[in-house]
Amino acid sequence: MKKWVDNLISGLLGAFIVILLGCEITMIVTERKSGLPSLFGYSFLYVKTDSMVGDRPDSLLVGDGIVIKRYDPSAVEVGDVITFYDEKVSSGYVPTHGLVTHRVYDIKTEDGGLLFYCTGDNVSSDRNAYNIVAAADYKGTMVAHSVAFGSFLEATQETWFMPVTVFVPLGLLAIWEGADIFRDGRKAEKEERSQIEAMMAEAGVNPSDEGTRLLYEEKFRYKIELRHEAEEAKKKERARYRKEFAKAKKKAKSETREETGENK
Hints:
Blueprint: H1 2-34, E1 42-46, E2 65-69, E3 81-85, E4 99-110, E5 113-119, E6 131-134, E7 138-146, H2 147-156, H3 161-203, H4 210-263
Antiparallel strand pairs: 1-2, 2-7, 3-4, 3-7, 4-5, 5-6
Helix pairs in contact: 1-3
């Protein structure tokens, strides 16, 4: 039972590290491809300005974390909050040339392509400063938002986050494995001591005779060492035999296919 628990804990810690590193690599690769990191089709952003502050259920506060998912641009509807690359703004304003999340208030088709007209929910902002978003600049539609998630995303940007989330589990795994090895060693030592004492009693060796006892222990440990070497030799021999058998089996199958082909 104890060994099963040890294996479970080690497996969980190892799986957590592998999943974390896999997610990190996936987000780096997707960011290089599309300019926006994503995981399983979802991207995660942190709200830095007050342009979307409003009284709607999906209005956004500074510090909110948002989850966006990319759909086909034709699925975007008026009222959706979308994230896009800000390349064109209404006359008299300069685009940010970065990622922006605003609400769609109009959709038009020009020259066979969709254009989304977007602006923030903040009533104090100038409604004339709307974004004109081509379908090619659309990155995704917001599907969820949360202040708590925003705090988490902010923490992930800290320099300590990645080392802590990777090295702490690695440290715990190393400590657990080390403790397990230590416990196994103590258990093996205890069993060996019990066997020596039993064999000494059977041979009539006086435990108080230190010279005879040490000599007996040395002989016993030498026997154990020889037994371990013999077991290792058997394991290597079995492994060699399995390898040769697999090789011979593969060769026989290949020859059988060749003969069958010739007969045809």
